[in-house]
Amino acid sequence: MSERAPFHQQVAVQPELAQRFGDLHPPLDRQAAMPEANRCLYCFDAPCTGACPTHIDVPRFIKKIASGNLAGSARTILDANILGASCARACPVEVLCEGACVMHRYNKQPIQIARLQRFAMDSFHQSGAPLPFEPGAETGLSVALIGAGPASLACAAELRRRGIGAHLYDARPLPGGLNTYGIAEYKLPLVESLREIEMLSQLGVDFHFGTMIDAASLAKLEHEHDAVFLGIGLGGIHRLGIAGEELAGVTNALDLIAGYKSGAAMTVPARVVVVGAGNTAIDAAIAAVRLGATEVHIVYRRGPEQMSAFAFEYEHARSEGVKFLWHVQPTRIHGDSAVDALELTKLISSEDGSIVPQPGSEFSLATELIVLSIGQSTHTAFISEHGSEDAKIQLGRGCILIDRATGQTSNPKFFAGGDCTNGGREVVDAVADGKRAGTGIAAWLEAQHVQA
Amino acid sequence: MSKPKPTLETTFCGIKCLNPFWLASAPPTNCGEQVMRAFDAGWGGAVWKTIGEPITNVSSRYSSIDWEGRRMMGFNNIELISDRPIEVNLQEIAEVKRRYPKHVVIASLMVESKRETWHDIVQRAEDAGADGLELNFGCPHGMSERGMGSAVGQVPEYCEQITAWVKEKARTPVIVKLTPNISDIRIAARAAKRGGADGLSAINTINSITGIDLETLQPNPNVDGKSSHGGYCGPAVKPIALNMVQQVQSDPASALPLSGIGGIGSWRDAAEFILLGCGTVQVCTAAMHYGYRIVEDMQDGLLAWMTEKGFATIEDFRGLSLPNVREWKHLNLNYKVVATIHQDLCIGCQLCYTACWDGAHQCIHLDRTSPVPDTTRTPAMVEAEATRNISTTPIPKLDAGTLGRSSAVTPLERIPRVDEHHCVGCNLCALVCPVENCITMERIDNGLPSESWEERTAKGLVPPGACEVMSTNT
Fold it and tell me: Which residue from A184, A203, B103, B424 has the least number of CB within 10 angstroms?
């Protein structure tokens, strides 16, 4: 092992950040966790477990909390989800485990699964115990994983537990991808993501940071390793394609979030407009409020019923004072050297059901910062350039196409998972993808070995 | 016709009672100041903390069993009888009776097994004004090592003898408190009755060790790293107490006016003891847990229930459930119930399913979405299918159909189905179901007349070998 400092000790947490972005859902203490754990009915074939993309055995880990077996509880969580602490905080549990809780059906509050999961994981981390898994006996096989986000990390953990080498390549200086840089700090602090990845690295994961992979280096990695996993996430930020977009004061939601989380950009101007109404747009708008903006607008082309943000995220934004402008489209950005207003045009439904600008409805919203959050595309260029015609990695609708059960692409040596395959979902979906791909790779390699 | 306005006033062993709720002989009746506050709160009577030669107690003295977040489901103590001088207790009894003449004060007594000593304490307690005497033949810890308490209650000859000594002297009713730490409580009850007891009280606490501290490996309650078996009481012991109460009251050689004790904390508990024949009930743990104030709802709730049922007095319903407790051989073997799951109430937890498969008779199935009933699908198969299922976080815009589906309505595939032809009617599924009335046990009319094991045996319908029993003492 190299003598690197633990990941979570490589960053300095600014007190101001912790103060402005305190826990949205505060932790449970033991006295609160025990009765909550006892409230769980212990369903058979529990719906919460089914709803969790990683199928954490929720009743099992909760009953272990109730019995005081906290280490066993954490092991149950980590066995299904190697980023169990991150997911406890970052997951939209309202539409996952807690949304599926049977308690909803007789007028009772669902079990607070996320907070119990965090309790188990926090207790485990505080105990200082090592990761409760050992790497498998070394097989001599190795896999290159492109990107060090949740999908690759989960895949790497599965590989290491089977004695397969895992070599991760990431452009950033620290691991975790969006788990580290892209989740609202009041849900998952950057340092907590790093703490969990540090623990995972006890399995003997090999990290290569600051490394961009292009078609040539991908070919080299394919040659050097027995398989390649693509966990590259999404890349290119969609642009509006309107005048003024190049002005200073136009940014995107992910840069804004990564900027404050890393401490690099801790201030915003007084007036901020976020374009788009997805969950990331909400995170950016709330961040702007927390960073000191006095007027934050979210503008969206359609109505609230069509936004992709979860209802509880929308309510959260409203409770933080974010204002919403519906059925408007940005048509121009005003400003000399920097942004000073966003021109919006009202949209109306035409007779054929499409939405069209309403002539003469233009108006301007004064702002000093415009944050784009209208989606991302996949970094597909280096993939489409890769491989001969019969070994192409097939893409569809901007995503890498995979077999859902194994993560295998159309090129059998390449596997993929996470946002680059699903178009952008949650950390837990990426972990589930990575986990399936890890077992998929191991099974494929074993089959290759048997054939050979 | 308007229902009669009921009263809680009653008479026990000739003692007039404002209500049947007495505090048991225990810490809540340790001194006059406490007893008077208890009377102010509404208690009809108090059995004084056992009076005898003052003892020395240990520290600590109590421990308990918590259950899934609720405290003190079961409670245990290693405290001995009163640690206060006899004359102080008697002076306070006199003071309480002077100020609360209508409230019942029973002197609980325990002295060495000598006739003169018992005569002396009986005389003094009655001179102080006690309405009755309770002989503590039940204390299972400490005192029993000194030949008192349960050491008396466990030996019928001692029990009878001392009761007889007391009766030689007593002018007030003599109540013998029975220990449950005996193979058959009727043996002690009969002895007390032979000795001339006017009434009984049951049960005293049950021998117990509540637990071991897994850090220190020391038992609870901790006295300098050691402990001793204590007396168990509280909600956990109620079923044991009810059974013993029924045993005593169904045995003509035992039956006497009975003051019921054991896990009583509410009017419901009290009503159950009275339905099995108790004339009064005694409460300790619940009062130690929540204070004297609990008696308010015990009165209020019991009166409301009596009104609803049309009972005017305690005597109107005392013992009404006794005829319904029978020996097993008298139960109707042709009575048949099966479980019915009410789909509209089912929340899909499937606890009935796993309970029936692992703990009962494998007659609940998850096959409502199968084309035909499928009783071959095992729990392991269900779980394996779930493991293979791939789920993702729903996105409102993309996955409109899946959002909110699970929380509002129980999916049909999660609602278990009872195979009524194989259901034995054991109740387990209904017991584990967390939703009231979701699983009900419905009677099946099989057209067969009532027939008990005894009747079946008498008809010669039972193969030899299956009907022979060892003689019992009943």
Answer: B424
- What's chain A's average pLDDT? 94
Q: Do A43 and B348 touch (CB under 8 A)?
A: yes
pLDDT at A273 exceeding the cut of 90: yes
Q: Which residues of chain B have pLDDT under 70?
A: 1-4, 397-406, 467-474
d(CA A160, CA A206): 10
**A363 reaches B (C-beta below 8 A):** no
Q: Is B473 buried (19+), middle (13-18) or exposed (0-12) by CB count in 10 A?
A: exposed
Is the pLDDT reported for residue A440 higher than 60? yes
Whether residues A106 and A158 fall in one domain: no
Q: Which fold does the domain B329-381+411-464 belong to in CATH?
A: Alpha-Beta Plaits (3.30.70)
Q: How far is A439 from chain B (nearest CA, A)?
A: 13
The reply to whether B435 touches chain A by the CB within 8 Å rule is yes
What residues of chain B, 45 to 74, have a C-beta less than 8 Å from chain A?
Answer: 68-69
Task: Say if residues A37 and A62 touch (Cβ distance below 8 Å).
Answer: yes
Is A123 a member of any domain? yes
Which structural domain, as residue segments, surrounds residue A331?
250-372
Picking from B351, B392, B395, the nearest residue to A43 by CB comes out as: B351
CB A137 within 8 A of CB A419: no
**Portions of chain B given CATH number 3.30.70.20:** 329-381+411-464
**Residues on chain A touching B379 (C-beta within 8 angstroms):** 44-45
- Is residue A312 within 8 A of residue A266, CB to CB? The reply is no
B139 part of the active site: yes
- Per the structure, the count of domains in chain A is 3
Q: What is the pLDDT of residues B376-392, one digit of tens each?
A: 999 999 999 999 999 99
- Cα–Cα distance measured from residue A214 to residue A380, given in angstroms and rounded to the nearest whole number: 10
Name the 3-class secondary structure at A63. helix
Chain A residues closer than 8 Å to B349 by CB: 41, 43-44, 102
In a domain, A328, yes or no: yes
Q: Is B251 exposed, middle or buried (0-12, 13-18, 19+ CB in 10 A)?
A: middle
- By CA distance, what is B381's nearest residue in A? A45
Please name the fold of domain B10-324: TIM Barrel (3.20.20)
Nearest to A34 among B69, B379, B434 (CB): B69
Q: What pLDDT was estimated at residue A377?
A: 82
Residue B357 vs residue A355, higher pLDDT: B357
Q: Is residue A322 domain-resident?
A: yes
Mean pLDDT of A9-13: 89
Instruction: Number of A to B CB contacts under 8 A, please give it.
Output: 98
The whole model's pTM is what? 0.92
Q: Can you tell me the mean pLDDT for A90-94?
A: 96
Q: What tokens does B167 get?
A: 């009766």
- Asked, for residue A137, whether it belongs to a domain, the answer is no
| Range A91-95 average pLDDT | 95
Comparison of pLDDT for B474 and A247, the residue scoring more: A247
The reported pLDDT for the residue numbered B404 is 47
Of the residues B17, B139, B233, B284, only one is catalytic, namely B139
Q: Hey, are the CB atoms on B382 and A432 less than 8 Å from each other?
A: no
pLDDT of residue B397: 66
Residue A376 banded pLDDT, cuts 50, 70, 90: confident
DSSP character for B440? E
Q: CATH no. for residue A58?
A: 1.10.1060.10
Q: In chain B, where does the domain assigned CATH 3.20.20.70 lie?
A: 10-324
Q: What residues in A contact B410, CB-CB < 8 Å?
A: 102, 105
Contacts of A426 in chain B (CB under 8 A): 393
How close, in Å, is residue B379 to chain A by CA atoms?
A: 9
Å between A44 CA and nearest CA of chain B: 5
| Rounded CA separation B201/B249 (Å) | 11
Q: Which residue of B has its CA nearest to A279?
A: B395
Q: Can you name the residues that pair with B442 across neighbouring β-strands?
A: B338
Chain A interface disruption, residue of B369, B382, B406, B439, most A CBs within 10 A: B406
Tell me the C-alpha distance between A217 and A53, whole Å. 32
Q: What is the ipTM score, two decimals? A: 0.89
